[in-house]
Design brief:
By secondary structure, the chain is of the alpha/beta class. It is built from 12 helices and 10 strands. Helix 1 crosses helix 2 and helix 8 packs across helix 10. The longest helix is centred in the N-terminal third of the chain and has 20 residues. Acetoacetyl-coenzyme A binds next to helix 2, helix 8 and helix 10.
């Protein structure tokens, strides 16, 4: 059994993947970042550099520490190469069951026997993911929050077969990343999204039923409940397709109609309005602008 973690491979270089690489590299781990396209890896390295620059600008990271951290990240398009010396793999691919099962089958075949396999899934069963490997005791959920360098939480999820020693190791290692780990059991949506997504869904239903507009719903939740973002802005930030896929996991996994995704959410995803990443969701996004502009679809005032 693995007792120390030095070499970490992150599968996927999107928003979550590059954020996870960022915090591991900054905390002194050797990081291998793997994606299928070199352009995606190049973009991710540029993003990590830019996000580290923010920390340098506010004095929480020195320029020298930034350079050292960037120097600890190697990029790979070949999975076998990326994982051959890994002590821990953190998978941060798209939230799609078949894709994740396929990746874990390959990881199980390619990784050293002692290597721990973690998934950053936001809702897919860790037990199901572990079932396609021959090392269920070493498969665990490590659910980071976006933006990873800023958010303190890591939701650590035990699958049915995860060994207590692996949970302890991942818990302690999360603290070394400067995070606060919280352990949850494997159940649809775990804790974070079981509670967050029904709130977001309710905000969408509130909009759909014409109770209030986008800005009003978000302002009420921001100022009334001291949330940093309103639920509709947060949905755009997470990605409406991701919100829909998590709600589908909750709905089918728990079987309670209260988790059924809002029709408006389903329609928006089908129409390609995915939030910040597609340029439009409940708000319209313009590159380089921080202004929050309600999407023309929802900006008509009726009162
Ligand atoms: N890397 C490094 N630093 C970053 C960063 C990044 N990617 N993004 C923001 N920051 C830093 C900024 O530099 C800034 O630092 P200082 O305050 O020290 O100057 C700070 O974070 C705040 O950023 P901004 O000033 O740009 O903007 P803001 O004050 O509006 O905060 C926010 C932005 C941190 C995203 C804040 O709006 C927030 O906390 N929103 C809620 C985020 C949230 O709920 N995340 C969880 C989503 S759910 C999820 O991830 C899991 C899932 O399964 C769906």
């Amino acid at each position: 059994m693995q007792t120390t973690i030095t070499n970490v491979t992150v599968i996927g270089s999107g928003t979550m993947g590059n954020g996870i690489c960022h915090v591991f590299a900054q905390s002194g781990f050797n990081v291998s970042m793997m994606d299928i396209k070199q352009e995606a890896l190049d973009r991710a390295i540029a993003t990590i550099g830019k996000n580290m620059d923010r920390q340098v600008a506010k004095g929480s990271l020195s320029e020298e520490a930034k350079q050292q951290a960037l120097g600890r990240i190697a990029t790979f398009t070949d999975m076998a190469e990326a994982v051959k010396n890994a002590d821990l793999v953190v998978e941060a691919a798209t939230e799609n069951v078949d894709l994740k099962l396929n990746i874990f089958r390959q990881l199980d075949a390619l990784c050293p026997a002692d290597c721990i396999l973690a998934s950053n899934t936001s809702s897919i069963s860790i037990t199901k993911i572990a079932s396609v490997t021959k090392r269920a005791d070493k498969v665990i959920g490590m659910h980071f929050m976006n933006p990873v360098p800023v958010m303190k939480l890591v939701e650590v999820i035990n699958g049915y077969g995860t060994s207590a020693a692996v949970t302890r190791l991942i818990y302690d290692m999360s603290e070394k990343l400067g995070k606060v780990p919280c352990v949850a059991n494997d159940y649809p949506g775990f804790v974070a999204n079981r509670i967050l997504m029904p709130m977001i869904n309710e905000a969408i239903i509130t909009l759909q039923e014409g109770v209030a507009g986008v800005a009003e719903i978000d302002t009420i939740m921001k100022l009334g409940m001291a949330h940093p973002m309103g639920p509709l802005q947060l949905a755009d930030f997470i990605g409406l397709d991701t919100c829909l896929s998590i709600l589908n996991v909750l709905h089918s996994g728990i079987g309670n109609p209260k988790y059924a995704p809002a029709t408006l959410l389903v329609n928006m995803v089908q129409a390609g309005y995915l939030g910040a990443k597609s340029g439009e969701g409940f708000y319209k996004y313009t590159a380089g602008s921080k202004d929050l502009v309600v999407s023309p679809m929802f900006s008509k005032k009726e009162w």
